[in-house]
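User: Hi! I'm working on a homework problem where we have to compare a predicted structure to a textbook description. Could you give me the structure for the chain below?
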Amino acid sequence: MKGLEFVFLAVGSVLGAFLRYKITESPLLFNTLPLNVLIVNVIGAFVLGMFIVVSEQWNLDGRYSLLAAVGFCGSLTTMSSFALDSSNLFENHHYGALAINLVSNIGLSIGALIGGKSLMSAIVNN
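Assistant: Happy to help. Predicted structure tokens:
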């Protein structure tokens, strides 16, 4: 990795990690279901979906993928916290909330990615 590529990755990573920290610093629960991780995962997937379309349409240099996709979205979203939340729900016998957590994080993240791609496709193709 070259110096400038590292800078792009670092800037994206710091911005994504900061935003994740700000969104998740105060626990937001719906009954026993943790919402903070769901929020960052859905936002990150939506942003990634938009970026994919922009990157393809404008033929962006790979450094922008390091900035936006790998750095920002990779630092904003969090599989490890999702796994921890799911494990905690399981260990505390909150099986309904666990099922909702699994389906919502995976389903809504995929839906957000598709939504971001669709929205950006509509914007750049008009």
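For your comparison, note the following. The beta strands are 29-30, 33-34. The first strand starts at residue 29 and ends at 30. Good luck with the assignment!
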